[in-house]
Design goal:
Order of helices and strands: HEEHHEEH
Structural class: alpha+beta
Number of strands: 4
Strand order of the largest sheet: 1-2-3-4
Distance between the termini: 50 Å
Largest sheet: 4 strands, antiparallel
Radius of gyration: 21 Å
Strand content: 5-15%
Shape: globular
Number of helices: 4
């Protein structure tokens, strides 16, 4: 059915991205169906379930920019998604493909909102007393976790002992064994 194992893995990771976006969309739909805009339900002393909209980027950056930002963020999400699909296809490590799939799923979840609603629905509100972290959603969680994984892997790859060292002639004071 599949030409090689790599295409099966690619489809698995793309399927995972689709599930992330779908789960995010289901939760957003439930929030919009069950809560009025601006409503907040206290779950714990530090966490509220809310219904808010974000017309901007992270932390509502550019939210009051007159509407151009919607199309700009849609375009960026589409370009990033194409790059992520290519990275998943070319990935040689499952962890790398998983990280890219997480970011892709989150990006798709939020771009669906921007295309069909004109804003992103956020519903997770963590706070301490009167200070609130900006509300976010499941798509944002997967984007952040995926980026953290990518960064961790890049730092680990730079410190890998198996990394090839350039062969250069020994300099005075160089005590490497040859």
């Amino acid at each position: 059915m599949f030409k090689d194992r790599a295409s099966l893995s690619t489809l698995t990771f793309l399927g995972f991205s689709t599930l992330v976006a779908l789960a995010d969309q289901i939760i957003k739909w439930l929030v919009q169906q069950s809560m009025a805009y601006g409503q907040s339900i206290e779950i714990t002393p530090f966490f509220n379930w809310v219904h808010v909209w974000n017309e901007g980027a992270a932390f509502s950056l550019f939210a009051d920019s007159g509407g151009w930002q919607r199309y700009f963020f849609i375009a960026i999400a589409i370009v990033v998604s194409v790059v992520l699909v290519k990275l998943i296809q070319d990935s040689r490590q499952r962890a790398e493909a998983l990280a890219c799939a997480m970011v892709l799923g989150g990006a798709l979840g939020n771009v669906i909102d921007r295309v069909f609603r004109g804003y992103v629905v956020d519903y997770l509100d963590f706070h301490w007393q009167s200070w609130h972290w900006p509300a976010f959603n499941l798509a944002d969680v997967f984007i952040v976790l995926g980026v953290i994984m990518i960064l961790a892997m890049s730092f680990r790859a730079n410190k890998s002992p198996n990394k090839q060292v350039e062969d250069s002639p020994s300099q005075p004071g160089d005590y490497r064994r040859e």
